[in-house]
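User: My notes are a mess, but here's the protein and zinc ion's SMILES. Can you give me a structure?
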Amino acid sequence: MSAAPLALRVPEMPGEPAHGTLMRLAARHRRPGDAAGFAADCGLSFRSLLRGGGADAVARLAGFDPLALGQRSPLVDASGRTVGLGGQRIALGDWSTTNRRWCPHCLADDARLALGRGLPTERLAHHRFWWDVKSVFGCAVHGVPLAQTCAACGRGPGWAGPVHRCPCGASLLSATEADGRRPSPADHYLAGRLTGIRSGTCLVDALTYREAVRALERLGLVATGRWSARKPRLGGSEAAACRDAGMGLLADRRHGLARALDQVLAEGRAREGRPGLIGSYGWIYELWIANLPDDEFGRMLKSALREHAVANGVIPERERALGGGPGGPLVDLATATSSLGMGHARARAILGRGGMLPDGIRRSVAFPIDGVGLTRLREALDRTTDAKGLRAILGVGKAQARRIVGAGLVPPVGSGPGGTAIRFEVAAAERFLRTLIEGVPVRRKLPHGSAMLAGACRSAGVPVEVACTGLREGDVRATGVAPGRLSLAAIMVRPADLRRLRKDDGLTVEEAAKALGVHHEAVRSLRRSGLLGRVRPGRRSLRRGEVDAFARRYMPASEAARLLGTSPKRATRLMAERQVAVAAGPPTCRQTFYLRADAQRQVLAVARP
Ligand SMILES: [Zn+2]
Ligand SMILES: [Zn+2]
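Assistant: No problem, the inputs look usable. Here's the predicted complex:
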């Protein structure tokens, strides 16, 4: 149980988060490849560890310093959309444990260390918490891009463990030396911040981690010298290149920044864009620098841009822009409309309901609009989608989408900006999909006995929202997921598994006790302790699958006694002598239970001395 430290321990490794520790503990207990099962035996959910939190319980099990482990384990702040990790505030979208990443050279270093100490590799090979932070693209020690897929089988190794081995059996270590590659400037800086090293000389030091990443990427986009009305979106490796370019621009900001702005301005003019700051610098002015707060970083960029604009005749010296005037930057209605990327009528309606247009304004009259408010409104529109967009993300029809929303699986974000129809956060919908397939292998073919989710729901007579809830809660497990874009249509399940979710399939506590051959009071305490299923409301709330899973994993002392041909009391004493770990027992549970695998081994040893 989670209260006492385990007898078999692993050395504490710096940089390892709680989920990494659990993978090593599982291997230490001869359960490599079963981190989730091992966690469950310890009364923990590995799945929720991967979502952040629970470091305290892991620290107790491992005998680690809870403060230190908490510091290097993720703590999600859902409302702030950030993750606290390594003392930094990281954007929620910048942190992910969906696909495990690792540095093959770091793991090879661990293996050498283990060899030197005469330990097996899995004792010291450990996950680093910054491998889960996407803005750290490459290893800050070895300079190689972090790996995401196994070189042998081409799949992600997932989290089942051990850390240094893919489920296909291949090693995740690098066979060759890193031959002195240097980490990229951004990786060096960002990983340094996460591990508590600050250069103390960088202009983005004063920003939070999330803001610093954003600032570097935007500076990198400026460095490309391209003009654009909207901020270009970046893929993973493009973003990494931009962060490095951003570091470069910061290092040489007197000349580098001016040179980059020269190019942007030239391209803006070549497009015969409108004069003025927006026509000349596009999103760089309108959507970014104009809205920066008045801190050191904001002031530096505003004054650099202002200097450039004045020197190139974009604005007259006396114009009160970019730190020059009160009231903040303003844009007119036409610019606002095009900036929202929609038709005039719809943009006006949204702006009006958002309280950004004075009453009675006529189309022909240009009116100043608060640029900062506009940016916020646009970002909110970008992050959310309507019911149709949600259906496209989930890959289901109208009725199914409605039931999924109705079941609270993808909550709407109230009414949209400016009071438009109900909207959904894109990230929340995608996160929901990912929770259904955590650790599920990608398959090109349906495994035997499986069907695609929609068909499986039909043949099992289970509504899609019930199936999704079951997958999310771990009551059933997907058997595979098709390659390509993730949607509900890509998920493979066994209809036989789904059948277990049918309402009429529940057991009462008394029925479960009978099936397990134990006292019903014991069943109640096992449920409370989390060893037997989940606590749900209702009388028939135990699932047959949960009871079966419990019976497979644990053995009551009465059964051990029967196998040994002795009394339960004597069997309990024998097990204690042989140090078989008690999974549950007095005083919290009126009967004693052992891990079945462990108990069985000892029963055999006693039976045939
Ligand atoms: Zn490395
Ligand atoms: Zn593999």
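The radius of gyration is 29 Å.
User: Great, I'll file this with my notes.
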